[in-house]
Amino acid sequence: xxxxxxxxxxxxxxQTIGNNYKTEFDVAxxxxxxxxxxxxxxxxxxxxxxxxxxxxxxxxxxxxxxxxMSGRMYQTQAAxxxxxxxQTIGSRIDKLNxxx
Length: 100
Prior knowledge:
- By secondary structure, the chain is mostly helical.
- The chain has two domains: 3-45, no CATH class; 58-99, Arc Repressor Mutant, subunit A.
- Helices cover 58% and strands 4% of the residues.
- It has six helices and two strands, in the order αααββααα.
- It has helices at residues 3-10, 14-17, 24-34, 58-70, 75-82, 86-99; strands at 37-38, 44-45.
- A two-stranded antiparallel ribbon has the order 1-2.
- A hairpin with a 5-residue loop joins strand 1 (37-38) and strand 2 (44-45).
- The termini are far apart.
- Residues 58-92 form the HTH psq-type domain.
- This is HTH psq-type domain-containing protein.
- Pfam families: HTH_psq.
């Protein structure tokens, strides 16, 4: 159905329908591409990003902790040398010191 035919059939001005109207097929195709998930309140959202933020391994963290705790390096130096966030090194050292 063209825009002109739709405007006559439903008694709506053609400009209201506009050039950017979407068919049910277009909406369904878009919906399937995005793979929306329902919210608890009934809306929808995009899927969450993977929670793989850690860009270092546990071995590097252990080596950084050992270097800082032995006094060979400062936290900032160990963070740069072993590729571990400085805040992670600091929080792990604090956690280790609390348990002693």
